[in-house]
Amino acid sequence: MSILKTSKLGNPILRQIAKEIPLSELKSPAIQKLIDDMIETMHEYDGVGLAAPQVHESKQLAVIEVHNSKRYPWAADVPLLILVNPVFLSKSEETADGWEGCLSVEGFRGKAERSKQVAVRFWDRKGKEQKLEAEGFPAVVIQHELDHLAGKVFLDRMRDLSTLTHLKEYERFWMKPHDEES
Ligand code: NI
User: Fold this and answer.
1) What is the tens place of the pLDDT at every residue in 82-102?
2) Cα-to-centroid distance, 95 and ligand 1 (Å)
3) Does some domain include residue 2?
4) Of 70, 83, 93, which is closest to residue 144 (Cα–Cα)?
5) From ligand 1's centre to the CA of 166, what distance in Å?
6) 74 falls in which pLDDT band (50, 70, 90)?
7) How many angstroms separate the alpha carbon of residue 103 from the centre of ligand 1?
8) 178 CA distance to ligand 1 middle (Å)
9) How many domains does the chain have?
10) Does 98 reside within a domain?
11) pLDDT classification of 76: cutoffs 50, 70, 90
């Protein structure tokens, strides 16, 4: 496995709609290795999610895992999820604003507006169809990662840029020991 180089804001790949992965391609050693490398890369950078365009691959693929997160210490654990060709089945109209960061928008946090509940359909790494309902932080992470596959970043979901905050100032002024999505 290898740790992959991440793309940063301004790289055009982050603004493209990622391409669907056909079943035959998903089963190839190359894509299976990409999945493993994305998991390792997410762990290396203490991310809670990583989308393929963030590692320079324009593919409908994202990984999510929350386990004793250093970047989001208050977040409940989410078991490893591999989302291939994910689509939303539903997104609640009710929204909440919560702090988000992104490995492609290094060093910043900002409050983004997200649906409170979502349901998604996707393939797992074997190409088996899965459905998942989520609410709270896991729902936020899913929306954040699916946004990456649609060429969007969390900055696009901020009501305005008034909460855009350097990570150091976030830790100084805004991070609370048990900060929940609010
Ligand atoms: Ni991101």
Assistant:
1) 999 999 999 999 999 999 999
2) 19
3) no
4) 83
5) 16
6) confident
7) 6
8) 22
9) 1
10) yes
11) confident
Domain extent, residue 79, equals 12-174
Distance separating alpha carbons of residues 127 and 140, to the nearest angstrom? 24
Distance 46 CA to ligand 1 centre (A): 12
Q: Where are the beta strands (DSSP E) in the chain?
A: 49-51, 61-66, 78-91, 95-100, 108-115, 117-123, 129-135, 165-166
Q: How far is it, in rounded angstroms, from Cα 30 to Cα 138? A: 28
| Separation of CA 85 from chain center | 14
The structure tokens listed for 182 are 């609010």
Using 50, 70 and 90 to split pLDDT, how confident is the model at 63?
very high
Indicate which residues carry an active-site annotation.
145
Cβ neighbours, 10 Å, residue 34:
19
Instruction: Please count the residues of the chain.
Output: 182
Q: Which two tokens stand for residue 103?
A: 């490995």
Distance from Cα 104 to the centre of ligand 1, integer Å: 6
Q: Is 1 inside a domain boundary?
A: no
Say which amino acid occupies 36: D
Long-range contacts of 151-156 (CB under 8 A, 24+ apart): 151/14, 151/15, 151/16, 151/17, 151/18, 151/53, 153/9, 153/14, 153/102, 153/104, 153/105, 154/100, 154/101, 154/102, 154/105, 154/110, 154/112, 155/9, 155/105, 155/110, 155/112
CATH number for the domain spanning 45: value is: 3.90.45.10
Considering the domain boundaries, does residue 182 fall inside one? no
